[in-house]
Amino acid sequence: MNDAELTELAARIVAEAGRRGATAAECVIRHGRELSVTVRLRETESIKQAEGKALGLRVFRGQQAGVTHSSDLAWPAVSTMLDAALTIAATASPDPAAGLPRAEELGQLAGDLDLYDPAAAAVTTEQALEWARRGEQAALATDSRLTNSDGGSCDAGESTKILVNSLGFQGCVRRSSCSLSVVPIASHEGAMQRDYWYSVARGPEGLESPEAIGRKAAQRTLRRLGARKVATQRVPVVFEPQAARSLLGHILEAVSGESVYREASFLAGKLGQEVAASGMTLVDDGTLRGRLGSSPFDGEGLPTRRTTVIAGGRLESYLLNCYSARKLSLASTGNASRGLAAAPGVGCHNFTLLPGAITPEDIIAGVPNGLYVTEFIGFGVNAVTGDYSRGATGLWIENGQLAYPVEEITVAGNLKDMLRQVTAIGNDLEIRGAVNAPTLLIEGLTIAGS
Amino acid sequence: MSDAASFFTRHYGVTAADCERYLAAALGRGGEYADLYFEHEATSSLTLEEGMVKSAAQGISLGVGVRVLSGERTGYAYTDDLAPEKILRAAGVAAHIASGAARTRIAGLGETNPGRNLYGPGPAPTDADMLAKLALVRRAEQAARGYDSRILQVRVGYADELRQVWVVSSDGRSSSDAQPLARLSVFCLARENGITEKGHAGGGGRVPLEFFDLELTPESLGEQAAREAVQQLAARPCPAGEMEVVLGPGWPGILLHEAIGHGLEADFNRKKTSAFSGLIGRRVASDKCTVVDNGTLPSRRGSLNMDDEGQPTQCTTLIENGILKGYMQDHLSARLTGARGTGNGRRQSYAHMPMPRMTNTYMLAGHDDPEDIVRSVRRGLYAVNFGGGQVDITNGKFVFSASESYLIEDGRITAPVKGATLIGNGPDVLTRVSMVGHDLKLDQGIGSCGKDGQTVPVGVGIPTLKIDRLTVGGTHE
Fold it and tell me: Which of A30, A226, A362, B465 fits a 20 to 30 Å CA distance from A89?
């Protein structure tokens, strides 16, 4: 079936739900294909290729909702799913905040947002293998201490999402993506280290060259050799953009309408208040052409938009879907995310911390004694309280210079304080995915080590 | 033919003869081994929040994955349509990992079911009435709400699944299993004097719904979650730095999963990318430590009659009295290194390639009295509940995050402290285990493990343990 036929199928399912007693219904269909290859130590390691499709259904009986999903799009299976959704909706409680969006909220951005590059779908296995091989080779050729590898990987694929609801919304968006990553392993004096680098874009043209990715991965890995532990102390911490992105992930959880209405966020009830340093401006924007988080409509059929979440340190808006918006007596910001298996959640589109004016080199130069974090591991972040404690890897800063690698330490604080203690924001914002941040400096964090 | 195999024959008309044809196509270009992984997964879930069942969901996913091995290479393709032409096409795509003429003969299929049932008698949880599941969820909620007037929010989730799996391989094996799984989890917020804290508890396993009446009641889960949230209201900042750490029994066994478990998966060791590579026969723990991975425990979340390559699961000794004994194998790594399989080849679904994964990983009981263990600590941390953990396989550094822990001062458990991440080095953390309790406990059945983007259910366990020195990532110097 082509996309027009699938849209028609979704519309037929929504109409049939109505005939069988649903007061409202929504159907989402996804289909796509993927190619994924890995090369390790110059040899092909794996090739995976597949196509898939699946359908999700949400029906309402008044204010009771039922959700079903299936990978079988044939009518007998669909019919069974419809009945199942209506039956389980009877199990749900009447919820005054449940329901589809209001008809006047629905809509989508006009035109093609350049989300589909036919070149991504046309990538052949041979091409993907060649890029992965070149990327890994460039890494391994950098230095004799790069003795092993977790490989080079290249993925290319496309996916289409169709959303139809009983208020007449019909949307279909086709997106492509392409990515290349390299994970070299270095060893020296019996100790091993790995790091990685990657590039992701809508099509192969947008990728960094395999050689550039490989060399960057090699440099990142080599600089970790000889890492040691440092003493427990309180110091300023510089977050490399990769590490700063993870901090944006924690902010996202805290500004998600779902966390906020549940009071499970340290930013609940803080709308309009200063929550971060005055240099901090965070924007979510689903309307940007060609970007990885963009879409003409969100998971409930609202047009995406640009939402300023924090402006100059002041909390301006949460990110909301219709449900969390109703719970908070606010309007949706077009941030519904829709998987197949569950009711819509909240997700970001392109979430960005706007850059400052200072170079990352100058930020580091201003730190007499501190940590430059390149990677975090673990899940020690509590969005309810803001308590933050994560395993870290990076480089120690002595007298404004990157001095030596460190590992097996933690960085701890509380996000409420950390957002206010951002004293420098770099000018090095690079777009590497849907969530992006420049280098950041946060004062007064506790390093636990020896 | 067994139940799951006949499931695919009955519902989708796939026969053993068809499978032989698909395998022949998969090996049509010279591959050495091929297998088919048929999977039908039915799921259901309920979420209760603010006293309302906010979401009720059901789903079905169906598909087959075709894998072809050629030396160290893997070709993989899958389809969610079991029509013969679709499966043949997937087999043809996977076959391309090899280049040449067909060489391998398909052995005639013989049934190789493990012939055991670890999942207990009784109907699968997915077959139970939604209203019975709803009753469990409501009971958990009431128990949590009733625990303390400071409980502000309660969210209860119930989820179950039944996976019908049929694995057919070119060496003539045909194995099938019907794998149930159920989980009930409770999330609470408590508030006092403007401070809000959270608590979480969950449990379940490969069990019928009655398990929650007989063995792990919704009331106990509700109270556990509420207790943790209320307890945390009084938590002080956690200390930072190296100190003595006592881990309580059960779920803190996530230490083993992160510190050593992943590092002992055979793929990393075959590729020599693990900090444990080449350490077989060497001391990696104190002589008080014996650690196993056991997929054969009845009803456990991490248990399976067979792994996702059709191999029976087993109990594999990883560390015996401190000495590293073995790795966890999947078919590919065992084949390439000449090792015996251990039944650890698992995958998230038909859309994923199998890899070596843990099942239930735990340390055997020792001889120490848990109270003596706490009494032996002058100043340290007693950690009883954890969130997630993570490890860097290559340098061995691992973390796991305590969600409930207490100070130990002069041999006594004193104040609760805020959650903090604990960090250490896998190959040497267990060498600093100086006391091992006699109170081995397994977790209640909440663990999920992620590797290379694939999530599978697992179990962990430890007795009360004392680690002489571990870095605690608090804020309080």
Answer: A30
Two tokens, residue A216: 């960057």
Q: How far is B395 from chain A (nearest CA, A)?
A: 5
Pull the structure tokens for residue A420: 């206010």
CA nearest to B82 within chain A: A72
Distance of residue B57 Cα from the nearest chain A Cα, in angstroms: 4
CB B463 within 8 A of CB B441: yes
* Confidence category of residue B2, pLDDT binned at 50, 70, 90: low
Q: Which of B225, B186, B247 is nearest to B406 (CA)?
A: B247
Q: Distance (Å) from the C-alpha of residue B467 to the closest C-alpha of chain A?
A: 15
The pLDDT assigned to A407 comes to 97
* C-beta of residue A395 within 8 angstroms of C-beta of residue A360: no
Encode B172-194: b = buried (16+ Cβ within 10 Å), e = exposed: bbbbbbbbbbbbbbbbbbbbeee
Cβ separation of B80 and A54 shorter than 8 Å?
A: yes
HEC sequence for chain A? CCHHHHHHHHHHHHHHHHHCCCCEEEEEEEEEEEEEEEEECCEEEEEEEEEEEEEEEEEEECCEEEEEEECCCCHHHHHHHHHHHHHHHCCCCCCCCCCCCCHHHCCCCCCCCCCCCHHHHCCCHHHHHHHHHHHHHHHHCCCCCEEEEEEEEEEEEEEEEEEEECCCCEEEEEEEEEEEEEEEEEEECCEEEECCEEEEECCHHHCCCHHHHHHHHHHHHHCCCCCECCCCEEEEEEECHHHHHHHHHHHHHHHEHHHHHCCCCCCCCCCCCECCCCCCCEEEECCCCCCCCCCCECCCCCECCEEEEEECCEECCCECCHHHHHHCCCCCCCCEECCCCCCCEECCCEEEECCCCECHHHHHHCCCEEEEEEEEECCCECCCCCEEEEEEEEEEEECCEEEEEEEEEEEEEEHHHHHHCEEEEECCCCCCCCEECCCEEEEEEEEECC
Q: Measure the CA angle with vertex B229, ends B228 and B233; round to 5°.
A: 110
φ, ψ of residue A304 in degrees (nearest 5): -75, 165
| Residue A377 with chain B: CB contacts under 8 Å | 390-392, 397-399
Per DSSP, B248 falls in state P
At residue B460, does pLDDT exceed 50?
yes
Residue B107 pLDDT > 90, yes or no? no
Q: How confident is the model at residue B1 (pLDDT cuts 50, 70, 90)?
A: very low
DSSP E strands: which ranges in B364-453?
A: 379-391, 397-409, 412-417, 420-425, 433-436, 441-442, 448-451
Mutating which of B49, B58, B137, B156 best tests the A interface, going by the most A Cβ atoms within 10 A?
B58
pLDDT digits (tens, 9 = 90+) for A383-392: 999 999 999 9
DSSP annotation of B433 reads E
pTM for this entry: 0.95
Alpha-carbon distances, residue B61 vs A52, A343, B9, B296 (angstroms): 11, 17, 17, 26
Residues in chain A with CB shorter than 8 Å from the CB of B74 are: 45-47
pLDDT in tens, A3-39: 999 999 999 999 999 999 999 999 999 999 999 999 9
Instruction: State ipTM.
Output: 0.94
pLDDT attached to residue B259: 94
The mean predicted confidence, pLDDT, of chain A is: 96
- Whole-number Å distance between alpha carbons of B38 and B250: 34
Q: Residue B114 — pLDDT band, cuts 50, 70, 90?
A: confident
